[in-house]
Design a protein that fits this description.
This protein is an alpha/beta fold. Helices cover about 30% and strands about 15% of the residues. The chain has one domain: Spore Coat Polysaccharide Biosynthesis Protein SpsA, Chain A (Alpha-Beta Complex), CATH 3.90.550.10. A seven-stranded mixed sheet has the order 3-2-1-4-6-5-7, sandwiched between helices.
Length: about 290
């Protein structure tokens, strides 16, 4: 409000001064934002549509798994019916029709498809998927269809029950009756025994792709190639807990494996030594609040 002027011979009491006009007759415009941004009116909250966040995200790294995409996504949808979920599929540089099949799945289901321009490995696919997920809980599956999505609800229920004792919990699937070749079963059994002895991960089947854990926990773990095979040891190193749950395992009926037994053996030795180094080089602090 303009200030009142003192009474005078030509001004009645209570008169108010008017703004001084620009002598040029120009009308002053608002000062522009130096950044060039244009301010928009605040949106009306009533116009916003509230979309509930997913409760769990199923993360699936895939490489050349085109024939498995739709059958696997359909199974996940049936297993998680009535649940707010999302499926994050990471196409790890595939050169088959995986990308096309993922696009088709995204039109029918809550699928988010991401792609690595070049193959970076299964662990990189898991890292990319977890980082992109919006849900607080993560379930991981292999893209070959051998893990049964029907097991996800049981593992998730176990994880939520265990979280009452502390939020840093990993529930690992245990393939009691593996549907693989004889040499694959034997090599896996030996690898699990060696890992359990050297790393103390207390997990009978750390190589099972079916796992459930909090997203926040995973994002605090160290990252490296093939880390997905050492998640139990990494969670224990972080101060979390690991439990195992029996799960179904099925033979591969579509596509072919992207790596062989000797390939796994060649990298597992150096990876295991690296995890041992990580365990020995970290001292977990016991924090006390003194405020």
């Amino acid at each position: 409000m303009a200030p009142a002027l003192p009474p005078g011979p030509d001004r009645p009491p209570g008169a108010v001064s008017a703004p001084s006009p620009d002598p040029t007759g120009a009308v002053s415009a608002p000062s522009p934002d130096p950044t060039g941004a244009v301010s928009a009116p605040f949106p009306d909250p009533s116009d916003a549509v509230s979309v509930p966040s997913p409760e769990i995200a199923v993360v699936i790294p895939m490489r050349n798994e085109g024939p498995n995409v739709l059958p696997l996504v359909e199974e996940i949808a049936r297993a998680l019916a009535g649940t707010r979920y999302e499926i994050v599929c990471v196409n790890d540089g595939s050169d088959d029709d995986t990308g096309d099949r993922l696009a088709e799945a995204a039109r029918r289901f809550p699928v988010r498809a991401l792609r690595h321009r070049r193959a970076c490995g299964q662990s990189a696919g898991v890292v990319t998927g977890v980082a992109a997920a919006r849900a607080p809980w993560i379930a991981t599956l292999d893209g070959d269809g051998q893990n049964d999505p029907a097991d996800i609800p049981a593992l998730w229920a176990r994880a939520r029950a265990e979280a009452a004792q502390g939020p840093d919990i990993l529930v690992a699937g245990h393939r009691v009756k593996r549907q693989d070749s004889g040499i694959k079963k034997v090599s896996s059994r030996i690898a699990n025994a060696v890992r359990a002895r050297l790393l103390g991960d207390a997990t009978p089947d750390t190589g099972c792709g079916l796992k459930v854990f909090p997203r926040a926990l995973f994002l605090q773990l160290p990252r490296f190639d093939h880390m997905h095979r050492y998640l139990p040891a990494l969670v224990l190193r972080h101060g979390g807990r690991v439990v195992s749950e029996p799960v179904n395992h099925r033979p591969r009926v579509r596509g072919k494996s992207n790596y062989g037994t000797l390939d796994r053996l060649a990298v597992s030795i150096s990876d295991m030594l690296g995890v041992i180094w990580l365990q020995r080089r970290w001292k977990r602090p016991q924090v006390e609040d003194q405020s």
